[in-house]
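Summarise this fold before class:
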Amino acid sequence: MMILGVGTDIVEVERFKDKPELCKRFLSAKEFEYIDKFRFKEEHVAGFWAAKEALVKALNDRNFNFSEISVLHDENGKPFFEGVNVDGRIHLSISHERKFAVAFVVWEK
């Protein structure tokens, strides 16, 4: 396996508080369903934004409609992308706390 690209992004969580129009532009229906379970939704929203921005950087490709890509979680809670068609594997890590969310993406083949 060879690493073809890496990307990282960090955002302030506050940027996504009470911004439903912004969220509609980049969240998928599956992501809305996921974040609806949480009290502090903006932390998860910020994490999804950071993940998608990190993906753009790792792939060096801005031709994505963010709302057609979903960040989902496996049975252990590990995040992964759905709706990204690339040759190889995409690895995703997201972390967030009250003020910041950060994501890291590795593309390997």
